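Section 3.1: Structural characterization of target chains.
Under the original work plan, the team committed to producing a structural model for every single-chain target entering the pipeline before any wet-lab resources were allocated. The record below documents one such target. The sequence was received from the expression subgroup and is listed exactly as submitted; it comprises 301 residues.
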Amino acid sequence: MDARDMEYLVAVGETQHFGRAAERVGASLEELTRWSREFERVTGLSVFERTVRRVRLTETGSRIEAEALKALAAVRAVDAVVGYLQQGWSGQVALACAPGAAHLVWPLVRAVEQDRPGLQVDVRPMWAIAALGALGRGEVSLAVVRDPIPEDAVGSLVLGAYRDRHVAVAAPGPLAGREQVSLSEFEGQGFLLAEREVARAVHDATVRFLAEHCVAPVWKHHRLLEQEQQLSLVAAGVGAALVPPTDNPLPAGVALVPLREEGPEHRYHLVWRRDDPSALVTAVITAAEALTAGRKRGADS
């Protein structure tokens, strides 16, 4: 049984009509009906149940059709890989992933590798500054990082958003063992805040968030972009800090406490070098655009 036999059989099974099946496979009606009789003769099986107006597959024919569908899908997958290899869609692209972005990155990886079977995405977890540095040096081709991002030399798109839902506090300490904490408990207390010229989006969102809840902490300004470095200040007792989701282990002396209020929203960006013309990078960007468009349609519906 060759690919033509499988295509003819599936077409007849799905249309239940020799004429429509012939149109689908680009054959004449006479050719297809002749093939059906010859197929049954060669196999010695009753495959088709013919009536005046239509044709159905017998139980035997349906079992053959099910396997033919699998085989044809495998053939198409092989053809797709060959096509992507011919077009330069093969290879590996390195993507740096900042803490907390895994829930956005892995759906993107699956979409890319499903649409481009010859392309593999090498995900490398690293903090945001390290990721942007690796991108600039050409060690990775893309990165997923949260606000802020450099405005020069990189292209970007918003891949998703998150909210700060926890507060990092010193441990041991009066808040470290709590099941939940309210912003009001930080009135007059030390609270970390990135300087605006270093992280404008995070700075403004944090200030606005506490002001909206009528809380006036003692701001502890810093110029640290890395969460790991900020948590070291928390451990040292400098102040508490709003933190994004993270899968990384916490440093000693720090506890995360759930926040009663819904924290400010920040964004994760997919970024790449504007001077990188790679077809592999383009494939990832295209997949990311499709994913974000799909999420938007889902949110609007």
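The domain at 3-86 is CATH 1.10.10.10 (Arc Repressor Mutant, subunit A).
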